[in-house]
């Protein structure tokens, strides 16, 4: 901490480098796969090669007899104790919710579903033995196309359900018929949110260590607390007998917000064998079995006046659930229900979503979870409306957005946006982008018929984060609350331990939480230790997802710190023989107002409280404090992103020339962390626009099982981002913070696609399906759709070889 | 994934390596940098009985001047090739194309000759070797053999090497004065394989093209020489228009694949666009 004449520098707002990074980057830390207690056995899973088939026999006998193999099991061997994987979000009363065994018993419904497992003394022996397991399958029809799946007479994923539709959920507000009737402008569009594979740097890994009838389960998970409760529920083992540890976790993006079959089976195998068991997925195994994201077909109808003002919006979604409902699968598209209106005012809104079963890997939360899909739709529509009216896309937005003086604003989707300043963020972005200059260049290139055309894409987005007010979750039939817990422990030496229920998996909690604590308690940053991710240490929590950590968990910590100071004030007043009202607390020191030289530091008070020799009556000998914060509202980060693309009309290649992101995430604890979150978010959102797509062939085989076929951009493929912020504090929490984890991902996808389409508009193009691959762009220019190229052929090197498996 | 079991041999001399390869039988693989082979092993797409690791054969790391040619040893890494003064001076096409291979980590482990022996038509370097009329140097217990690049790349991931033959190096004729070169690689991300690549060398005399070499990456089961293009530009004027017209022949006789990154039709289109660009860049116009 650097001291100035005014006292120590404020930690909050300081771009401090993350204290956890050295160990995370070098890998000299506790990744789950780095741990191997004595006697650990290794698990390998045999997975279904069929998208849909009846299992008529599994013979693990040969596999058991191989050297190094300790045990081998089929799903049937665990049928009586494995229960069913949970879905915590029953979105409608009549939602179809199929049984989901951790290891398949009678039927497999996606390629990669576990069918049997081998437990061996080393990983190699376990993998070798998989080849000796004999499974008899009776193939059933694959169901890969959502629109076909909901048609009459479609093949069924779950025969017993009698339908492929899990649920239909409706939200309506305002008179949509009136809005549509005689509307001067009506736009109808069909957009496809392609299926994505969340790709965390650390693959999934789980290690379960039995100790008598108790179990410690280490897992690369985002949700140690929820996982513990769910493991207890699924297996019947008492919650108090299970300890879950999320050690350092290398990314998740939602994919580790899950209760996976492999986690349940690790626990059951450890119980059955009485030995520690470990499983770590390979990348190609992960591509098939980590839950996937997005995958929606959106039918949109927008009615507007000729001056650009929106009358109403109708949204009809098909959302691919995959083969089963996992932890929050059915609720993900519904998070978008509140966001399709974006930042705009309108008179009527109708949202209908049907969840559809297919014989593919289940979907669930992926960075943004429902909001990117909604934001894409409305921001693409705004550019389409501008084109239809021959109006500048910024101007059409200005005519519709909520003006800064109108906050708090009750939206047509039923939310109350507490704050925002879309004008300020947009003005700043336009200036940084040099919007007029680029528009002039665009006109010039069009004029010259330059083979490389310039496109400009706009995205003025908002999102809801800080998940979530518990009463709202209750009204949506979600299975839990949305609060967060924090504890602050003042150690006798004056050092501080902070316990948070929001467990980091790469976000930088250890740094940010220490910054908050250092400021609130007036102690040095280095004196704060942040503990998290272990249910034995952090007994309460709702974990990390939905950009909730700071806006919920950070506020809980803020409040717990204040409670420490309140307790300390009583002790300090006693020690200073002054009344509490006369005490000031500044830079970690209590003093009597007007008598600066006499005082007690918080550390001195902590020691006095520890010794307890001289405490006021009725005061417990501890300053430790807990707080649980349940937000009263969501928070609503917003921003304006502008993207310029150069599109080579001869090859279809898209290159991002310039990207400006002005985000308003409210008050900022650590601008460097915010910057990092925005950069990473942009990379992932741009990846959806240009690169990533999980492709299934007609038989339901995933053809993008390797990173040669599932393209993830690296720094080399992305432009240098121009990022900046405006700061409109949230009014819904005392820190004024909003959350930043998902903003970049949500905002950038439509900005990029809008820019691609803008470049091609003179050629009569009004959409390019994502990802906007060079071939898709080239075909759009020739007014052709993409042929079905899901069949990998020769020439892709490893990628082809992997995909052909 | 985890590789299946295999025997592992790390010979100390080229003779020992050739002997080990002969002894290992049909299903042995030679390991140089391992950047293509190891992933295949890990994914259990290749099940060799034995791996012959050339890591100790330091003599094969050499890149040397051989008069009219440069000889690149089997263990010379991409990184080494890119920075080698002989390569930069006499074979700049190799230096440029190699700089586009994968990423720095791969370029520090992977080898030039390993890429050729792997014979992946999506790899960048087979087309370069073909364009430069490289000669591949094979060694076995039976003796030495020289294989011209035009005969080396037989089919998809299949070279003319016999199971007991070890690629010990490649001899590439120096281009000489007056040549301009370019490697035009078209790929979706920096680390992705080329959807189509064009290796190109053009020798100009004033405004006339005296000679040209054009070879294509990923336009069939093996790299292909675009002879139609070469003939169409030879002795003609060096202009964008002429190159565009000549590049129309690029896809002639090719059998481009259809995969997730591009259809055969699209590749054929790309071949002609990229060839025109490569010719212009190589000719410096």
From TrEMBL, chain A:
<feature type="compositionally biased region" description="Basic and acidic residues">
    <location>
        <begin position="13"/>
        <end position="22"/>
    </location>
</feature>
<dbReference type="InterPro" id="IPR016208">
    <property type="entry name" value="Ald_Oxase/xanthine_DH-like"/>
</dbReference>
<feature type="region of interest" description="Disordered">
    <location>
        <begin position="1"/>
        <end position="22"/>
    </location>
</feature>
<dbReference type="InterPro" id="IPR036856">
    <property type="entry name" value="Ald_Oxase/Xan_DH_a/b_sf"/>
</dbReference>
<keyword id="KW-0560">Oxidoreductase</keyword>
<dbReference type="InterPro" id="IPR000674">
    <property type="entry name" value="Ald_Oxase/Xan_DH_a/b"/>
</dbReference>
<protein>
    <submittedName>
        <fullName>Xanthine dehydrogenase family protein molybdopterin-binding subunit</fullName>
    </submittedName>
</protein>
<dbReference type="Pfam" id="PF01315">
    <property type="entry name" value="Ald_Xan_dh_C"/>
</dbReference>
<dbReference type="Pfam" id="PF20256">
    <property type="entry name" value="MoCoBD_2"/>
</dbReference>
<dbReference type="Pfam" id="PF02738">
    <property type="entry name" value="MoCoBD_1"/>
</dbReference>
<keyword id="KW-0500">Molybdenum</keyword>
<dbReference type="InterPro" id="IPR046867">
    <property type="entry name" value="AldOxase/xan_DH_MoCoBD2"/>
</dbReference>
<feature type="region of interest" description="Disordered">
    <location>
        <begin position="782"/>
        <end position="805"/>
    </location>
</feature>
<dbReference type="InterPro" id="IPR037165">
    <property type="entry name" value="AldOxase/xan_DH_Mopterin-bd_sf"/>
</dbReference>
<dbReference type="InterPro" id="IPR008274">
    <property type="entry name" value="AldOxase/xan_DH_MoCoBD1"/>
</dbReference>
<feature type="compositionally biased region" description="Gly residues">
    <location>
        <begin position="793"/>
        <end position="805"/>
    </location>
</feature>
<feature type="domain" description="Aldehyde oxidase/xanthine dehydrogenase a/b hammerhead">
    <location>
        <begin position="26"/>
        <end position="141"/>
    </location>
</feature>
UniProtKB/TrEMBL annotation, chain B:
<dbReference type="InterPro" id="IPR036318">
    <property type="entry name" value="FAD-bd_PCMH-like_sf"/>
</dbReference>
<dbReference type="InterPro" id="IPR036683">
    <property type="entry name" value="CO_DH_flav_C_dom_sf"/>
</dbReference>
<keyword id="KW-0274">FAD</keyword>
<dbReference type="InterPro" id="IPR051312">
    <property type="entry name" value="Diverse_Substr_Oxidored"/>
</dbReference>
<protein>
    <submittedName>
        <fullName>Xanthine dehydrogenase family protein subunit M</fullName>
    </submittedName>
</protein>
<dbReference type="InterPro" id="IPR016169">
    <property type="entry name" value="FAD-bd_PCMH_sub2"/>
</dbReference>
<keyword id="KW-0285">Flavoprotein</keyword>
<dbReference type="Pfam" id="PF03450">
    <property type="entry name" value="CO_deh_flav_C"/>
</dbReference>
<dbReference type="InterPro" id="IPR002346">
    <property type="entry name" value="Mopterin_DH_FAD-bd"/>
</dbReference>
<dbReference type="InterPro" id="IPR005107">
    <property type="entry name" value="CO_DH_flav_C"/>
</dbReference>
<dbReference type="Pfam" id="PF00941">
    <property type="entry name" value="FAD_binding_5"/>
</dbReference>
<dbReference type="InterPro" id="IPR016167">
    <property type="entry name" value="FAD-bd_PCMH_sub1"/>
</dbReference>
<dbReference type="InterPro" id="IPR016166">
    <property type="entry name" value="FAD-bd_PCMH"/>
</dbReference>
<feature type="domain" description="FAD-binding PCMH-type">
    <location>
        <begin position="1"/>
        <end position="177"/>
    </location>
</feature>
<keyword id="KW-0560">Oxidoreductase</keyword>
